[in-house]
Write a structure and sequence with these properties.
Layout lengths: L5 H18 L6 H8 L3 H7 L3 H25 L4 H17 L2 H8 L23 H16 L6 H28 L7 H12 L5
Length: about 200
């Protein structure tokens, strides 16, 4: 039985990310990670009892980094409209800089998942990660303070919708990138169009 130590875990984590970057998320398997690190498949399973746990270990820091980027964009002074525009722009830049990471966060966990499969539910599936919840709450608070919504629950729904709208656009980009079939419009132009719909500039 391998000894539990942070060095082994770090090697497994780094190897998993290397596989995702070099070959794409669908090539992330226990055998591939074990081969890259030079350990047995059972050694990987010792740390990650199923693939869901392995993906979750990679996704968790990414979700926290995404939320940090969103909260930082909202923390600057200015109008709520400007804050929303910065928020969407910051998250778009975060994900467009690494579409493999985006696919791992929001696409790969969905493939082949069945409720209760292997007794696990990923943070991106069955529940919202706490850092994402905090990001939504930060945006919702801006919307309430601005007077756009009287109730925090309505503002929070709007915050989730803003984030989800961006994720939908990014999914299109990630699919086009995977198929090597560029979209008709430039990625930055599509993001700008979405921002203009969500938070139009004053005439």
């Amino acid at each position: 039985m391998p000894r539990r130590n942070s060095e082994t875990l770090e090697k497994l984590h780094d190897a998993a990310w290397e596989i995702v970057r070099e070959n794409g998320p669908d090539k992330l398997t226990f055998d591939a990670v074990a081969s890259r690190v030079g350990v047995t498949k059972q050694a990987v399973i010792y740390w990650f009892p199923n693939k869901a746990r392995l993906i979750e270990a990679l996704v968790r820091p990414a979700l926290e980094a995404e939320a940090t980027a969103g909260r930082e964009a909202l923390s600057r002074r200015g109008t709520t409209t400007a804050a929303i525009r910065r928020f969407v722009d910051a998250l778009a830049a975060f994900h467009m800089s690494d579409l493999d990471r985006f696919r791992l966060m929001y696409v790969t966990p969905q493939i082949g998942h069945r409720q209760g499969r292997e007794g696990s539910v990923l943070t991106t599936l069955g529940r919202i990660h706490p850092s994402t919840t905090e990001m939504y709450d930060t945006l919702a608070a801006r919307l309430v303070d601005d007077g756009r919504f009287a109730r925090i629950v309505d503002a929070r729904r709007a915050a989730v919708t803003i984030h989800t709208s961006l994720l939908g656009l990014l999914l299109r980009m990630a699919m086009a990138d995977t198929l090597n079939a560029p979209l008709r419009h430039r990625d930055d132009a599509l993001v700008e169009a979405l921002i203009d719909v969500i938070a139009p500039k004053a005439a």
